[in-house]
Amino acid sequence: MAEHDAKKFKFTVDGKHFEVDKRYLSGTEIRALAQIDPNAGLFLESHGPDPDRQIATSDSIDLGAPGVEKFYSVPPATFGS
After folding, report:
1. CB count, 10 Å around CB of 27?
2. Which of 37, 50, 62, 72 is deepest in the core (most CB within 10 A)?
3. Residues facing residue 17 across a β-bridge
């Protein structure tokens, strides 16, 4: 008998937990699930010496890596306006 439960992939955005059936999500899909302002920046938190990575709407993110991917949003900057 086949296993009924599909593998779940977990990630967080701004501290909110999400669980999906798809291993790969686009930046657009992550923004939609987390209800991120389209003008805000979306970043994938890195560990160690690597800088955090900004996620474009067209980027494909592999959620299958070990651990839970952590994303955060940054509101659009308004300098001198």
Report:
1. 19
2. 72
3. 12
Q: Domain residues of the chain, as ranges? A: 26-74
Is 36 in contact with 74 (CB distance < 8 Å)? no
Contacts of 69 (CB under 8 A, 6+ apart): 10, 11, 12, 44, 45, 61, 63
Chain-centroid distance, C-alpha 54: 10
Which segments of the chain does DSSP mark as H helices, in order? 27-34
* 47 Ramachandran zone, left/alpha/beta (phi>0; psi -120 to 50): beta
Per-residue pLDDT reduced to its tens digit, 17-74:
999 999 999 999 999 999 999 899 999 998 778 889 999 999 999 999 877 899 999 9
